[in-house]
Amino acid sequence: MIRTEEIQINMGPQHPSTHGVLRMILRLDGEVVVDGQPDIGYLHRGVEKLAENRTYVQFVTLTDRTDYLSAMLNNAVYAMAVEKLMNIEVPERAEFIRVIMMELNRIASHLVFIGAFSLDLGATTPFLYAFREREDIMDLFEMVCGARLTYSYIRPGGVMRDLPASFDEKARAFVKKMPSRLDEIDDLFSKNEIVLIRARGVGVISAEDAVDYALSGPNLRGSGVPFDLRKDQPYSVYDRIKFDVVTQPTCDCLGRYLVRTGEIRESLKIVEQALDMLPAGEYTAKVPRALKPPAGEVFVRIESSRGDLGVYLVSDGTSVKPYRLHWRPPSFINLAAVRQMVKGWKVADVVAILGSLDIVLGEVDR
Amino acid sequence: MREMASPEQLEQAVRGRFPDVCHESPEIFGIPTLWVEPDGIVDICAFLKEDPALRFDYLMSLTAVDWSDRFDVVYHLYSIPLKHYITLKLKVDRQSPAVPSVVSVWKAADWQEREVYDMFGISFEGHPDLRRVLLEPEWEGYPLRKDYGESAEPERKSTS
Known about the structure:
The complex is a heterodimer of chains A (366) and B (160). Chain A is of the alpha+beta class. Chain A contains 15 helices and 8 strands. Chain A has a single domain (46-358), classed as Cytochrome-c3 Hydrogenase, chain B (Orthogonal Bundle). In chain A, α3 (71-86) runs antiparallel to α4 (92-120) and α6 (167-190) packs antiparallel against α11 (253-277). Chain B is α/β, with parallel strands linked by helices and 160 residues long. Chain B has a single domain, classed as NADH:ubiquinone oxidoreductase Nqo5 subunit (Beta Polymerase, domain 2), CATH 3.30.460. Helix content of chain B is 21%, strand content 24%. Chain B has a 5-stranded mixed β-sheet, covered by helices on one side. The longest helix of chain B has 12 residues, at 109-120. The radius of gyration of chain B is 17 Å and the shape is globular. The relative contact order of chain B is 0.14. The chains are: A alpha+beta (366), B alpha/beta (160).
C-alpha cells in the first residue's frame, strides 16, 4: 500500500510573488494546501515605538514608510489625527489639494496592484503598461513635492506648499487619457482566458467572514459589502464630491481585481471634480513649529488604497512627542484572513490569493 | 435597516444591560467610551455584536496603552450596517497582565491580540494561538512598554 504524508514547504521570505518579505508556511497534501500560515515581521521597524521618541512633526516622514505605495494617504491620516487632537482647522484649498493627491495616489497604488497581480498570474505585459501610467502620476507628485515615493507632502495644518502653476493642466491631461489607457490594460487582463481561469472563483471569502475578519477596502468590497469610509464616514471634502462605491458580488480574486479597476475610474472622476472645485486661498493653516497637543486621545480613519487605515493617537499634554501611537494597518488585518482563504486551494492559487489581497509588507510589519 | 443610535442611546443600552461591569466615561469626540471590568468583556462584546439595535460587527482596532502604573486595553468598534462607533477600555494590572480573549466574538481579534501580546506582554486568556506575531519567538521583553530598554544592556539576544 502506498503511504502518503503531508509535507511542509516555506514559500518565502524571498519569493517573487510575496510582494516583499513574507513567509508562508504551507502544509501540503500533494498539491493541495491543508494549512497556510503567514509568518511576518521581516520588515518590522517598530514605527509605533519610534513615534514615542519623535516629535509630532518629525513623525510625518515615518508615515511615508508604512504603506509606501500610498504615502499620501498615510500622510493624510496622520495629519488628520494631529489636527483633530489640536483642533486645527484646515483651509479649504488644502482639503481639495489633499483629495486630489489622495485619489491620484490611490490610482497609482491600484496600478501597482494590477501590474503585480498580473505578474503573479504569469502575465508580464500588463505590468509594463500599468507602470507606464503610474509614471505619469509619479511625475505629477514629483512636480508638487519633489519626491516620487516618500512625499511627506500632506502635513498637519494643510500641505507642504501650493500646487505649481502647470499642475492643473498636466493633471487634467492625465485624467483625460487614463480611461482609455485603463481599457487597454483591462483588455490585456480580463480578456485573457488563462488569467480568468486562475482568478475566477478562486480564494472565495463570504461577506460574513470578510466582516468578521475586519477585512476592508477593495477586499471587502470584492465580497459585496459596500463599505467605503469616503461615503460612510465622509472626511475632508468627500461629502461634496460625487462618486460611486464599487462592489462585486463574487467574493473571489477576479472580483477584487474588478473592484480596483472600477475604483480607478471613480478616482479619476473625483480628481476631475476636485480640480474644478479647487478654491483659491491658503494651502496651510498657521501651525506652530512645535506641536504640543492638549492631553487626550483620538482615533481617525480614512479609506486608504488598501482599506480602513486608522491612527490612534494619545497625547499626555506635556510633551511634543506622542505618548502612544497605534497604526491600524489594513494590510496586516487583511493578511490575517489569508489562512482561511488558502485552505483547500492548490499551491499556485496561494500566489493568486495573496496577490489579490494587495498587501504591502511595509504596512503589515510597520 | 435601523437608524444609527446616538452616543447616549448606545451608552444607555450597554450600561443598562451590564450595570456591574460598565462604568461611565466621557465621550471622546462624540464617540461613547465605556470602562469595562475585564471579566465582563466577552459578554459585552458578544452583546454589542449580536443585539439587532447595535450590531457592532466590525472590530476596527484592538490595542493597548502603557500608563506606567497600569495598562489600558482599548477596543474601537464600528458597525458597518448602522455606522456608529463605541470604544471600550479595560484597566489591566501591570504585574500579571491578562485579559479574556474576544476571538470567539470577532476573528479579527486573532492577530490584533497577538500583536498586543507581542508588544506589551498582555496575555489573552482563551486565545487559540497566542504567540508573537511581528517579533521572533526568542525575543525578550515587550518593546511598547514604557520601561523597555531602560536597562543598560539591550534586551535582545544576539543571533550569533
